[in-house]
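Notebook, student rotation project (T.W.).
Task set for the rotation: take a protein with a known small-molecule partner, predict the structure of the complex, and write up what can be learned from the model alone. Partner molecule chosen: copper (II) ion. Sequence and SMILES entered below by T.W., checked by me.
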Amino acid sequence: MLRSLVASGLLAAVVVVTSAHVGSPDTWFQGQAGPYPVRVVIRLPGVVPGLAQIDISVTGDGVREVTAQPVIFDAGKEGAPPPDVAKPVHGRPGSYHAELWFMTVGSFSVNVAVDGSQGSGSVVVPVAAVAVRQIALYPWLGKLLAVLGLFLFVGAVTIFRAAATDGVTPPGLSVERRQARRGLVVASVGAGLLSAGLWGGRSWWNSVAADYRSALYRPFAAAAAVETRDGAPSLRFTITDSIWTGGRAANRWQRFSTTPLVPDHGKLMHLFMIRKGDQGAFAHLHPVSTDSANFYASVAGLPAGRYDVYADVVHETGFPQTMVAEVELPAAVPGAPGDPDDAVFVGDPAEDSYRLPDGATITWVNRPAELVANQEAGLDFVVREIDGSEARLAPFLGMPAHAVVHRDDGSVYIHLHPNGTISMAAQAALLSRQVSAAAPVGAADPHAAHGGEPMFAGRVGFPYAFPKGGNYRVWVQIRRGGVILTAPFAVTVRD
Ligand SMILES: [Cu+2]
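Predicted structure of the complex:
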C-alpha cells in the first residue's frame, strides 16, 4: 500500500507556453528598452512553483542595472513581486542572467528594465504559464520512499507496543502477560489508525493529482474542412472545444482563454496550412469569422494534398493559443487568395539564397555551417534588388517580415517576427494592465515616422533557436510592390 501511495505521489509540472506555437517552448524577444537594444531569452522551469532562466543581452555602454520582474495579467504591477536584479555574466560583457519564480498558472509578462548613463527603459515580454504534462516520480525515489515509509510505519507500531508494555513496567521487572496482550492491542489499534491516516492521505493526494491532470493545458480542440462558399472551395476552421463553445472555465488557464479574441497585427486569426510530407505547399491566411467559433478563408492557389493547419489566436488576457487540425484538399484550387494580406506559396526550398518572382533575392546571411538545437540559429536575412542593392521593405502586417518554422513531422511549428516569438497583441494586452493610456513602453510603433514610404531596411533577423534536431522548413515572407512574396529555406538541425 505504501509503495502505491508513493508511486501515486506524482510531481506536478508546469511548462510555460510563451507564445503561440507547437513544440517550441522558449521565448525569444528583441526590442528597445529606452536607449538600449535588448535581447531576452526565457527558458522555462517545467514545474510550478518553478524557476525560469532569463538571459538578457544589452547593447551599449554605461549600463548600471538590469532587472527582471514577473507580472501576471490579472494582478498587474501592484500585485507583482519586486523586480530581481539580473547578474552580469562573467566573461560575456553586456550579458545578464536572472532567475524568476513562476508561482501560479496564468498570462504573465516578464518586465525587463535597463538603467544606464544613456538613460533608462523597459520592455514587456509576454509569457503564459500553463501545465502541459506531469512528471512522474523517479522509480528509484519511489522505491526508496516506500522502504523508508515502511520503516517508519513499523517503527511507529513498535513504539506504540513498547509504550504500552515496557513503558509502564518498572525497571528490572519483566512485562506481565496481561500487559503484553494490552501492548498488542495498542499496537494493532495504532497500526489501524496509521493505515487509515495513510489511506486518507493517499486519496487526498490522488484527488490533488486528478485535479492537476484535469487542469493540464491543451490547445482548444478544433476542426478544419473544405467547403464550397460563394461557389469556391474555402477552408472552414471551427473551434469545437466545449470550453470555448460552452464558455465554462473550470480552472485558471481556462479562465484566461475563455475571454474574447483580440486582433494580432489587425487579424483575429493567423492561419497556416502546410502540406504534409514534402512541405511543398504553404499558405498564410487570415480567416474571417462568422461567429466566435467559425472562421473561413479562401484556399485559392493551393494544390491537392493533406495539410497540417495551425491557427494562432490571442485572448484579451494576452493568453496566446495555437490550435491544430488537419485537412484534405481533394483537388488543386485555381486562382489567388482573396485577402491582400493572405499568401500562398508552392515550390521547393533554397539552401541560403532564394530568387523571388520579381528578380530580387532573399539571402540567409552568415548561415551557420551547422545548426544545433537550442543554440542561436542566426536567422538573419537580407533582401537585395536585381542590381544587388539592399532593398527597402514595405510593412507587412506592421512588420518588415514574418517567418514560419516547421519541422517535417509537424511536431514543431512557430510563427516568428523580427522582435522574436512573442505576439504583439499579447504584449499590448499585458501592457494595457500596467501603464496609463499613454504610449506603451517598449512596444515598437511600426508606423512611427515613416509616413507610408517603404520604411524598413532590407535586413531582417529573427531571434530564435530550434528546439530539437530534425529537418525543418523556414518560410520568410515580405511585401514588395503590394504583393506578399515567400522564400522557403530547407534546414537540418543537429541535436
Ligand atoms: Cu498572419
